[in-house]
Amino acid sequence: MGSLRSMEGKKSGECYVVIRGTKTLSDVFVDLDVEEINDEQVGVRVHRGVKTRADFIFRDIDDKLKICTEDIIITGHSLGGSIAYYLYLKYVYYHIFE
Q1: Model-level pTM?
Q2: Each residue of 27-52: pLDDT tens digit?
Q3: Is 35 buried (19+), middle (13-18) or exposed (0-12) by CB count in 10 A?
Q4: How many angstroms separate the Cα of 57 from the Cα of each of 10, 12, 21, 86, 94?
Q5: What is the DSSP letter of 6?
């Protein structure tokens, strides 16, 4: 699931999460897993492949992002953009509403 690239920003405490688009065969399977499922916690419908990949990345980065004292920028391209948007929604839900 190697679609995650992250780095520290230019300002101290600023963090970026950058997720690339489709590159590997594994990514193609994520693209093809288009069944829409309802994420009742976050309050959205999402493609199952995007949710599965985003959940994996979220578990990996959630603790790591606690060091960020400034902005957290979550971005991506194509498949990575879909994952990034859903990650943002999850992050907001779990860190603001819970």
Answers
A1: 0.83
A2: 999 999 999 999 998 999 999 999 99
A3: exposed
A4: 23, 23, 14, 11, 14
A5: E
